[in-house]
Design goal:
The structure holds two protein chains of two kinds. Chain A is built from three helices and three strands, in the order βαβαβα. By secondary structure, chain A is α/β, with parallel strands linked by helices. At the A-B interface, helix 1 and helix 2 of A face helix 6 and strand 2 of B.
C-alpha cells in the first residue's frame, strides 16, 4: 500500500486551522491508504486549535480503521504531545 | 496618699489590665501556631508580647514576673532566630508558662503567693536554651495539590482564548501535571469545525496559592470554560459528583482512577453506595471518605487563614481608642436616663401649656435627648468576638482532656452587644460549649467510622436580626435523638405514657429541671443542672433559647437577646392606679375581656377560649392586690414567653407602646414575684416592669416538682392563694 504523506508547513494555529482541514481530508478520499503519514517538520507553531485538529484527525483515521503516523515532529511539538498525554494517539511519536 | 503614689497606682492598674490583654494575645498566638507551626508573624507577636510584659513588669519592680518571663522570652528569641523549632511540645509548655505568668501577675496584684513554684517549668525552658540549633531542614515546599477539571466550550477559540495558554498561565502558580486530555466531545470528521473548541483537560496543580488565586486564572474565561476545582482535601464524593455532572463522559471515572486521583475500590464502592441513595443529598455517613494525603494540613491552614483574622500585631488601632472606666460609663448612662425622663416631663408640660414656641423647643429637645441616649448606649457596646475568642482555649484544653479532636470556628466576631449582656452570657455559653464537647462531638474513631471528618467542629456565631442579637452554638456531632429524650422524660414521669409530642416538643424536654440523658455523669457535665438554668439565665436577660438537631449531623442552639438591657420597648397598661410595663416582644395581641368569654375564674386565675384554644388568664388586680372595684370594661393582653408558653394578663386599661430606660429595683423590692424592674414615666409616676415568665407560670399553675405558685402581694395585706392545675 503506498504511503501517503501529507506535509504541513507553517503555523498549526487557530488562524489556519480551517484551511488545514481540507488538506488533511485528502486522507479520506477513496484512493487513500489506511495509514496516512503526517510530516510536521515544517510546523513552526502549534496552539490549542492545532492540537485539536491533530487529535480530531487521528480519531477520524482510527474510526476508519487505520492509524495516523507523525514524522519529523519538531522537539517542541513532541514535548507538548507528551505533556498533554496524547502521544499515544499517534504512531511515530517516540516517548 | 501623695499625688505621685495615686498616679503610680493608676499606672499599675493599667499595667495589670494591659498585661492580661497581652497574655490573651500570647494564648491566641500559641493556639494558632499549633495549627500553623511555621507562621513567623505569630512567633514575632509572641516574642513582642512576652518582651513587653517583662519590660513593663520591670518598671514596676514585679520581680517574680520579670525573672520568669525573661526565661520565656529567651526561648522565644531562639525560636525566632530559627535555632529552636516550634513544635507541639514547646507549644504546650508555652501555654503552661502563659498560665504561670498569669498566676504570678495575680499574686502581684492581690498580694498573695498562690502561684505554683516554677522550678519544673524553668528547668524545661532551660533545656531549650541549651539545645544546639538543628541542621537546617530540607526545603519543604508545603504545597497543596489541587485537581482541576476543565471543559472548554465551543466558542473558546473564537473569543480569542487558547486552552494551552490558559494551562501555561496556571503553571505560573505552581507545578501543573496534565492527567488527561479529554476529546470525547470531538464530533465526526465531517461535522468537525476546526474553529470550534471541543477540548477538556484533567490536571493536577501543586501550588501554595489560594483557591481564589486559582479561580482568578479563569476570570476572563467565565463563559467559555466550565471549571471544577477540587481542593486537596477532596474526597471520593467530590470526584463522584464531578463524574455525575460530566456524566456523558464514560471514561472519566477510569481516567481518574488511572491517574491515581481515586482508587478503583473507592470508586466502585462509592458508586455502588451512590446507587442506593435517593437523590439529592446523601447522608454524610454514607459516602466513603477517601483522603488524598498530599499535605492536606497545609491546605487547611491556608483555608483557615482566609477565614480567620490574622494574628494581632501589637495594637495598630491604639491611637483610635480611649480607655474609659466602666463605672464612669455607667454614671453617664444613668444621667442620660434621667435626662430622658425629665425631657419627657418637659414635653408633657409643654403640651399642657399650649405655648407653640415651648412645644417646638421641647420637641427639638426631645430629639436631641434621643440622640444622646443612642450615643451613650452605643458606648456600652462591645464586640462579642472578645468573648468568643476565650473559648478557643477552653475547647483546646477540654478536647485534649477528653481525647477528642475538636476545633472552634467563630463567625460574626464583630457583632456588637451591650456590655451588660456580654457579662451575663458567659456562663450559659460556657455550659453549651461544654455540652457540645462532652456529649455532642464523638471521639475521632467513631466519627471516621461514620464517614465524618475526624476533627469535630464547634461553631460560635453571632449576628443581628431585627433589633436582637442572635448567638448560635453549633456542633457537627451526634445530635440529639428526640426518642431518647422522650424515653428519659417518661422514665422520670415528666411525660405521661400516652402523650404524643412533636419533634420540637421532644427537644424542648431537655430544658426540664434535672434532666440529663448522659449515661455517666462526668466531671464536666451530666449532672442535669444545666439546661434549665441556662434557659432561666437567658430569659432573665429577656431573651429566648431554641434547640434544633439532626441525629448524626449535629446540634444547634440559638439564643436571642435584646441588644441592650438598659432600654425596654414596652407596652404600658393600667391596673387600678398603677402603671405597668409589659416587654413588647412578649405581647402577641390584646383582647376585650367581656364577662361571657371568661370562664372558671377562681381568685386570680381563669380561662378563656381563644379561637378554639384554652388560654390561661391571670387577673393582675388580684395578683397585685389592687384595692377597689374593678372597672366594668377590662382588657386582656396575651403574652408569650421565650419558651412559647402563653397566658392572658387581665388589666384595666391599655396605654400603648412605650420605650423607656430601665432602672433596677432597689433591695426592698427584690422579693416581689412578677416584677423585673421599674421605670419612671414622663408624668413622674413610677411604672413597674412585669416579669412575663413568672406570671405565665403563675397562670398555668403547673405543679411540676411540687412547685406551687403563690400570688405576689404588693405592699401590705398580701393574700396568698393556692392554685391547682385546672
Amino acid at each position: 500500500m503506498p504511503q501517503q504523506v501529507i506535509v504541513l508547513d507553517g503555523e498549526l494555529t487557530i488562524q489556519y486551522a480551517a484551511s488545514v482541514k481540507p488538506l488533511l481530508a485528502q486522507a479520506f478520499s477513496s484512493a487513500a491508504p489506511a495509514a496516512p503519514v503526517l510530516d510536521l517538520s515544517g510546523v513552526t507553531e502549534m496552539d490549542g486549535a492545532g492540537l485539536q485538529l491533530l487529535l480530531a484527525f487521528a480519531q477520524a483515521v482510527a474510526r476508519a480503521g487505520g492509524q495516523l503516523t507523525l514524522q519529523g515532529v519538531p522537539a517542541a511539538l513532541a514535548t507538548v504531545l507528551e505533556r498533554y498525554r496524547v502521544a499515544d494517539q499517534f504512531a511515530g511519536v517516540a516517548p | 496618699m501623695s499625688g505621685l503614689d495615686a498616679r503610680f497606682d493608676d499606672a499599675l492598674l493599667l499595667f495589670y489590665s494591659e498585661a492580661r490583654d497581652l497574655l490573651q494575645q500570647i494564648e491566641d498566638a500559641l493556639l494558632w501556631l499549633e495549627e500553623s507551626p511555621g507562621d513567623s508573624e505569630a512567633i514575632n507577636a509572641l516574642f513582642r508580647a512576652a518582651h513587653t510584659i517583662k519590660g513593663t513588669a520591670g518598671v514596676f519592680n514585679i520581680g517574680p514576673v520579670v525573672s520568669f518571663t525573661h526565661q520565656v522570652e529567651s526561648v522565644l528569641e531562639r525560636v525566632r532566630q530559627g535555632q529552636v523549632p516550634f513544635d507541639a511540645t514547646l507549644g504546650a509548655l508555652m501555654l503552661t508558662c502563659c498560665d504561670q505568668i498569669a498566676a504570678l501577675l495575680a499574686d502581684a496584684e492581690q498580694g498573695g503567693s498562690a502561684a505554683p513554684p516554677a522550678g519544673d517549668l524553668l528547668a524545661r525552658l532551660a533545656a531549650y536554651l541549651e539545645q544546639q540549633p538543628p541542621a537546617p531542614p530540607a526545603a519543604d515546599p508545603r504545597n497543596g495539590t489541587w485537581h482541576l477539571s476543565l471543559r472548554f466550550r465551543d466558542d473558546t477559540f473564537r473569543n480569542g482564548f487558547d486552552p494551552l495558554s490558559v494551562i501555561d498561565y496556571l503553571a505560573t502558580l505552581g507545578r501543573v501535571t496534565i492527567l488527561a486530555t479529554i476529546i470525547e466531545r470531538l464530533p465526526a470528521w465531517d461535522e468537525f469545525d476546526p474553529e470550534s473548541c471541543f477540548l477538556g483537560f484533567e490536571l493536577r496543580l501543586e501550588t501554595e496559592a489560594m483557591r481564589a488565586d486559582i479561580e482568578a486564572a479563569f476570570e476572563f474565561l467565565a463563559e467559555d470554560c466550565v471549571v471544577h476545582i477540587l481542593a486537596p482535601t477532596r474526597r471520593a464524593a467530590d470526584f463522584i459528583a464531578l463524574i455525575e455532572e460530566l456524566d456523558h463522559e464514560q471514561r472519566l471515572g477510569e481516567i481518574l482512577v488511572g491517574c491515581g486521583a481515586l482508587s478503583a475500590e473507592a470508586l466502585a464502592a462509592a458508586l455502588a453506595r451512590q446507587q442506593q441513595i435517593p437523590h439529592p443529598a446523601p447522608m454524610l455517613g454514607e459516602i466513603l471518605v477517601d483522603q488524598n494525603h498530599v499535605a492536606p494540613e497545609v491546605l487547611d491552614a491556608a483555608l483557615k487563614r482566609q477565614a480567620r483574622a490574622p494574628v494581632p500585631q501589637g495594637r495598630p488601632d491604639a491611637g483610635l481608642f480611649v480607655r474609659v472606666a466602666a463605672d464612669k460609663l455607667d454614671d453617664l448612662i444613668n444621667l442620660v436616663g434621667e435626662l430622658v425622663i425629665c425631657g419627657a416631663s418637659a414635653t408633657l408640660q409643654a403640651q399642657g401649656s399650649r405655648n407653640p414656641d415651648l412645644i417646638g423647643t421641647t420637641a427639638h429637645l426631645g430629639r436631641l435627648v434621643d440622640e444622646i441616649r443612642n450615643g451613650a448606649l452605643a458606648l456600652r457596646m462591645v464586640r462579642i468576638g472578645e468573648t468568643f475568642v476565650r473559648y478557643r482555649r477552653v475547647v483546646h484544653d477540654i478536647s485534649t482532656e477528653l481525647g477528642k479532636e475538636v476545633r472552634l470556628e467563630i463567625d460574626g466576631a464583630d457583632t456588637e452587644l451591650d456590655k451588660s449582656v456580654v457579662e451575663r452570657i458567659g456562663d450559659p455559653l460556657m455550659h453549651l460549649v461544654r455540652n457540645a464537647l462532652d456529649h455532642g462531638i464523638e471521639p475521632a474513631a467513631q466519627r471516621e467510622a461514620r464517614g465524618k471528618c475526624a476533627v469535630g467542629t464547634i461553631t460560635l456565631a453571632a449576628r443581628h436580626d431585627s433589633g436582637s442579637i442572635v448567638i448560635e452554638v453549633g456542633d457537627d456531632g451526634r445530635g440529639l435523638d428526640g426518642e431518647v429524650l422522650l424515653a428519659k422524660a417518661r422514665e422520670r414521669g415528666q411525660v405521661a405514657p400516652g402523650q404524643v409530642l412533636s419533634e420540637a416538643e421532644k427537644l424542648e424536654l431537655i430544658f426540664a429541671p434535672g434532666f440529663s440523658t448522659a449515661a455517666q455523669v462526668t466531671n464536666l457535665s451530666g449532672r442535669g443542672v444545666g439546661m434549665d438554668v441556662v434557659r432561666q439565665n437567658i430569659e432573665a436577660l429577656r431573651g429566648s433559647i431554641k434547640l434544633s438537631s439532626v441525629v448524626g449531623l449535629g446540634t444547634r442552639v440559638e439564643i436571642r437577646l435584646p441588644l441592650t438591657l438598659a432600654i425596654i420597648d414596652g407596652f404600658l397598661v393600667k391596673v387600678g392606679d398603677g402603671a405597668f410595663v409589659i416587654p413588647l416582644q412578649a405581647v402577641t395581641e390584646c383582647l376585650d375581656a367581656n364577662g361571657t368569654r371568661l370562664q372558671g375564674m377562681a381568685g386570680a386565675a381563669g380561662y378563656i377560649d381563644l379561637r378554639g384554644d384554652v388560654l390561661a388568664v391571670l387577673d393582675l388586680r388580684a395578683v397585685f392586690d389592687v384595692p377597689g372595684p374593678a372597672p366594668s370594661r377590662r382588657r386582656i393582653v396575651v403574652v408569650r414567653t421565650g419558651g412559647g408558653a402563653m397566658a392572658g394578663l387581665m388589666v384595666d386599661e391599655l396605654l400603648g407602646e412605650y420605650q423607656t430606660v430601665i432602672k433596677p429595683l432597689g433591695k426592698l423590692f427584690r422579693q416581689l414575684r412578677g416584677i423585673s424592674g421599674s421605670t419612671v414615666l414622663g408624668s413622674g409616676d413610677v411604672a413597674l416592669i412585669l416579669d412575663v415568665g413568672v406570671l405565665v407560670k403563675m397562670s398555668a399553675g403547673q405543679a411540676q416538682d411540687g412547685w406551687r405558685p403563690r400570688i405576689a402581694g404588693m405592699g401590705t395585706g398580701a393574700t396568698s392563694q393556692e392554685m391547682s392545675n385546672g
